[in-house]
Structure formats: C-alpha cells, structure tokens
Design goal:
The protein has 489 residues and is an alpha/beta fold. Helices cover 38% and strands 15% of the residues. Bound molecules: guanosine-5'-diphosphate. The site of guanosine-5'-diphosphate has 20 residues, from helix 2.
C-alpha cells in the first residue's frame, strides 16, 4: 500500500525550492553528493580521504581533471545549509595523520562544502562554464534510509513485519527476550509509560545486538533506534511493535493506541523531514558497504546485506512507484556502491571482491528497479593502511600485506601492541563467484580463509624535500571520476 509522502503544500514548496536552487546553480554550479552506508562502513574515512586528496593534490591518476593538471585549487567553503552540522574534517584529519588513529564515526547527518577551481578540457566548455564547482558532501547514516518503507506501512503492518523478521533463524535468539516481554502485555490494556519504555528498550537492545561484529547483520528499522542522532532518549523513540494485533482500531487510551500514535509521530516528524530536506535534494550518491565483514560472518549476513542494499537503493528510485513523489526535479543520476577496506586483501583479490559486490548489487538493483540512474560498483580503500610484500615460506613465495595491527587485535593467538609492523597473509577470495551465497557458504566451510585484523592508519611518507605526501588509497580516484569527473570535463 503506497501512501503519498508529502502533502500538496509540501510538494509545491519543494518544487519552488528546487527551482530557485536551480536558478542559483546557474551562477555558481554545485553538486550535492550523498555519502551513506550502514554504521562502520567507512563514511567518515571516505570523506576525510577524498577531501584531503583533493586539497593536497594527492595521487589520483584515474581522476582525469587532476591527472591532466586542470585543477587549479580545491578548498573548503562555508556550507549553504546553516541548520546542518558541519562535517568535522579538520578533527578527523588530525586524528588520522597526526595521531594515526581512526576518527570518530558518523552518528548523525553532517555536511561540508568543497569548492574546486578547474579549467575545462574543451574550449567550448571553457567559454560557458565558470570554471568552479562546489561539491556539497552530505554524510548521513544508512540506517536512516532503511526507514523509508515505514512510510507505506501502518503500525499494525510494521508490527507484523517486525515480528516476522525477528523469528528468522539468524535473529530468533537475539530477539527472544524482547518477544517474550512483548507476549506478556495486553495491547488493549491502559497505556502505561513504563511498559512502553521497557518494550522500546528491549526492542532497541535486540536491534543493536544484530549489528554486533560476529553476527554482522544489517539493520532493521526504525533507523533512529540504532542511530538516534539528536533524538537520543526522546519520546518519539519510545515505542515498539506489539504482537498479534487484530483488525480494527485500538481502543483510545490503550497501550496499542499510544504506540500507534508514537509510530505515526516518528514517521511524520522524523522520517518525512529527513527525506524531504536531505535525500530528495541529492544529485549523486555513494553507498559504502563492508562486504568483507558480511562474507566473513556467513551466508545469513550476506543475505541480510543484500536485503538492506535493496531497501537502500529503493530510496533512490525515481518517479512513480517510489514513496517519494516524482515532483523533485533534482534526481539522483549516478549511484556508486563501493565495498570499502579493500586494503585488507592482496591486490589479486580486489577484482574478486568487486565481482562479488557486483553480483550482490545486480540482484538488489533488479529488485529495487533504479532505472534512470547509472549504477556502478567498486572495491576500494579510501585509506590504504597496508602495503604489499612477499614472504618466503620454504620454496614458496607468498603474497602478504604489511601494516600495523591495532593494539589488542589477535591472529593465531598472537596479540599485537599497536606499534609493530607485521606481515599478514590475508588469504584469497574465491576466484569464480558463482553466487554470493555459495561464496559465503564456501567461506564458512573453510573456516573463513580471509584473515581479518584491523590496522592503524598508515604513516605518511615524506618526500626528500620534507613534504608530507597525501593519504594513500586504493581506487579512490575511480570513485571520484565516477561521482564528479563529468562535471569537471
Ligand atoms: P562510518 O560509521 O561509516 O563513518 O565508518 P568510519 O569511516 O568511521 O569507519 C569505521 C572503521 O572502519 C574505521 O574506524 C576503520 O577502522 C575502518 N575503515 C574505514 N575505512 C577504511 C579503509 O579505507 N581502510 C581500512 N584499513 N580501514 C578502514
């Protein structure tokens, strides 16, 4: 059942905003680039690395404008949206470069404006373009996108779906306490704040547990239960699904009526404004996924990642059939799905990782029907924390990756101190990915051949002149070329 997201006045206002945005864009062209992904996928690291490499003229051979020397300068400017927090670029780079620690991850929406002054490659473009592009980078939790399907569901449907997913074998043990608690309440009893809070907390605990490292499940809505942003502890988040809701409305004053009202308030005051004010205004989107973590965790986690990816992609489906109306004249025309942290693998496995992600995405794209947007797939590392080498073992020469494992990481019983560089044999991804599920099963059978330790950010090299080189990466330049390259042609 599709309900219309916006009221008529909302739509008129958005159309007006978009038109005036367009007009302003003629004078100073801008591009809104959304950066999303589930928590810990690598959004903060990606944005920091992207900006750092552009500002410091990093090595980006596959990014045409940079390679051909047409970028005069890239610099940060005041962002246009005063109500959105600024992405704390300087703090993040300080952590990465000076302290060699990973920066604080994304917890809510933030924004940064990067302006690039360039020279067009063609004389024709030089005549008509201003030679300046402002890229508004919008960082936001992927968990919030997973809320979109809620707009098409009433409270009873939301509840039924939540219980159905909670009973799946990969989730049933984690959800047991919450389901047990929910089964003891009578939805038609008088509303009671303590009961609502107890159920909401228990439900949120279950959602968080699914996300824990070993299980590596992608998340379920409501997104703010995992990433509350500024709503931490607010009554808008004090609701939970209730079991076995019959047809017919709830008795006024009952627990069900209270939960229903809060669920509707969450949709109206949290979900809709987020889509209207942020997602609907994006031009381009990158979705980061931690595919290796899912592969390591097994087939259920891979299936779950695919489900989340389908739902995320459906948010960008243009036009009819989308819960967002087709009134927006800004449309996302390019989407990049990037598997991050490829520096955990030897380069021979990078293409394999990319092939696996492509399979995952192909199915998701078909289901989500994102026709109209160009979708590409990439295996990359926004920051390369390792370098490659070989180790002789008897007669064999084995490829290894070399980096500084984080303190307290362990491999084969050895615990690292966070200071010592170590060579690690990362293992291979399967050569022929017949189906992602078979791969995950295969990896489960083999006891996960990819050894996964987390590394510290790299030590930046200096040139003979003492200039610090910019952050190393894998294929970050390809991502840039796809996301903004055409706008600098
Ligand atoms: P966010 O929640 O999406 O903002 O995730 P972050 O960008 O904070 O990344 C989460 C963690 O993943 C970081 O603390 C790093 O440990 C790791 N990570 C992210 N990107 C990379 C990468 O390119 N290479 C490596 N080696 N680790 C990464």
């Amino acid at each position: 059942m599709a309900t219309s997201l916006t009221t008529f006045t909302d739509e008129a206002r958005i159309a007006f905003d978009t038109l005036s945005g367009r007009a302003a864009g003629l004078f100073s062209p801008s591009l809104r680039l959304g950066v999303t992904g589930l928590s810990r996928a690598g959004k903060t690291v990606f944005i920091s690395a992207l900006v750092h490499n552009l500002i410091h003229g990093g090595r980006l051979p596959l990014f045409n404008a940079q390679k051909s020397g047409r970028i005069a300068r890239a610099f940060l400017e005041h962002q246009p949206d005063d109500a959105v927090p600024r992405f704390q670029y300087e703090d993040h780079v300080e952590a990465l470069v000076a302290s060699r620690i990973w920066p604080d991850s994304t917890r809510a929406i933030s924004e940064l404006r990067l302006t690039i002054e360039y020279e067009s490659a063609s004389g024709w473009n030089r005549m008509f373009s201003s030679g300046k592009l402002s890229v508004d980078i919008v960082d936001y939790p992927g968990e919030w996108l997973l809320d979109l399907p809620l707009l098409g569901k009433d409270y009873a449907e939301f509840s039924a779906d939540a219980f159905q997913l909670a009973a799946l074998p990969v989730r049933d043990d984690l959800s047991a306490d919450w389901r047990a608690a929910a089964s003891t309440v009578d939805p038609l009893a008088d509303a009671d704040e303590m009961t609502a809070r107890r159920l909401a907390e228990s439900f949120a605990w279950y959602l968080k547990a699914c996300k824990a490292d070993s299980r590596a499940l992608s998340t379920l809505p409501p997104g703010r239960f995992l990433m509350p942003g500024d709503l931490e502890g607010s009554p808008a988040l004090t609701f939970a699904p209730l079991p076995d809701l019959g047809q017919g409305g709830a008795r006024p004053g009952s627990l069900q009526a209270m939960m229903e009202r809060r669920y509707e308030a969450y949709k109206t005051h949290v979900v809709k404004p987020f889509f209207r004010e942020h997602v609907a205004r994006l031009d381009r989107q990158i979705v980061l996924i931690d595919a290796m973590q899912a592969l390591n965790a097994g087939p259920a986690a891979v299936a779950d990642l695919e489900r989340a990816l389908t739902e995320i992609l459906a948010c960008f489906r243009p036009g009819r059939g989308n819960l967002l109306t087709d009134l927006f004249s800004r449309r996302i025309d390019r989407i990049l799905i990037a598997a991050t942290k490829a520096d955990h693998l030897h380069h021979e496995s990078h293409d394999r990782l990319q092939a696996i992600v492509r399979r995952l995405v192909d199915r998701a794209v078909k289901r989500a029907d994102v026709s109209g947007a160009e979708v590409d797939v990439l295996a990359m590392a926004a920051i390369r924390a390792t370098r490659e080498g070989t180790v002789k073992q008897g007669r064999e020469t084995l490829p290894v990756i070399i980096g500084t494992p984080l303190a307290d990481e362990t491999i084969n019983g050895e615990t690292f101190d966070g200071e010592t560089e170590t060579a690690i044999f990362p293992g291979d991804l399967p050569e022929r990915p017949e189906s992602v599920f078979e791969i995950a099963e295969e990896m489960e059978r083999q006891g996960s051949p990819v050894r996964f330790v987390r590394f510290r950010p790299p030590k930046l090299e200096r040139t003979a002149e003492g200039v610090t080189l910019s952050l190393p990466h894998i294929r970050l330049d390809r991502a840039l070329q796809f996301l903004i390259g055409d706008r600098l042609a």
